[in-house]
Amino acid sequence: ARSRKAKTRKMKAVILALALGGADALRATPRMGLLSGLFGGNKGTILTESPAGKKQDFLEASPYWDQSTVPVNTFKNKSPYTAKVVSCKRIVGPEATGETCHIIFDHKGNMPYWEGQSYGVIPPGTNPKNGKPHTVRLYSIASSRYGDNMAGKTSSLCVRRATYWDPDMGKEDPAKKGVCSNFLCDATAGEQVKMTGPTGKVMLMPEEKADTDYIMVATGTGIAPYRGFIRRLFTETTPAGEAYKGLAWLFLGVANSDALLYDEEWQAAKSKFPDNFRVDYALSREEKNKKGGKMYIQDKVEEYADEIFERLQNGAVMYFCGLKGMMPGIQDMLKEVCRKKGLTYDDFVADLKKKGQWRVEVY
């Protein structure tokens, strides 16, 4: 029933947008799946599968899993790269808590990156507190190294607009809004954006063992790096995807159905690769946990605690990306599992970290 309601709301929003403003108005309507390919020409296309007869194998290391050539800090704060916005689309429904946008950038192949890395963005203008240029903000990249159109010359970010509701004013206080997130969510095609990076190696996929399980835990826009993983493994025709024999298991926590991110892509991967991809959602305002409280991400993960624990013991890599507030709940859940199995939690996690099986990027 919830799914039918979401689809109905989605279609109503699109119909209303067309009635009021034509195709341009679609930019403000929900859901990536309905909007794919409508903006930005070929560079703005979001391909859902590899073009017939084409492989995405031209940006690979040799062998493909060798991480010795990962690009890092190609562009620094003092000499950033100027990319151009291809498109900016709202990808949540009308009842989502806040606005999240998917933004595609054209880097002309000059700013290569790998899945799991981040870009820095330097918003224009100066900080009113000190008169100096704004500092760089980091965002996890939300596309594979080949970009959404698989040509290898674009990249994408998943950005939630940061706003502040002032209870005294009874409205949002524009003076306290997130400078960079609002700049990006308001961006239009052709706009120039100063970018740094790519940075980071913590969230990379160790691809040498093709049967490695990836357990990916995200809240909100923490989904970004996993979208790159999943497109590389299941959407594109890459050496890593063709070799993959493990399980990629995604957990996403958001407030409600309208706040789900990239759901169409996850369902497509699940349909094509049911033995290799799973997805579970925690909808805090629509679902209850086993204790009758709100269903947060740690509650959903807890439902599969024993299986996750077993997979970790067999070499699975577990990732966490998103709000740092999810970590205490995750840790408490695993501590309880360890206790039941007669293990010391700190030793267990220390061993996972040592083996590269515990990867955290929270904020």
H and E string = HHEEEEEEEHEEHHEHEHHEHHE
Task: Give the DSSP E fraction (strand runs of 2 or more residues).
Answer: 15-25%
Average predicted confidence as pLDDT = 89
Strands of the largest sheet, in order across it? Answer: 4-3-8-1-2-5
Name the shape in a single word.
globular
Calculate the terminal CA-CA distance, rounded to whole Å: 34 Å
Summary keywords:
six-stranded antiparallel β-sheet; alpha/beta; 13 strands; 363 residues
How would you explain this protein's 3D organization?
Mean pLDDT is 89; it is low at 1-40. This protein is 27% helix and 21% strand. Strands 4-3-8-1-2-5 form a 6-stranded antiparallel beta sheet, covered by helices on one side. The protein has 363 residues and is an alpha/beta fold. It has 10 helices and 13 strands.
Summarize the structure in short.
The chain is α/β, with parallel strands linked by helices and 363 residues long. Helices cover 27% and strands 21% of the residues. A six-stranded antiparallel sheet has the order 4-3-8-1-2-5, with helices on one face.
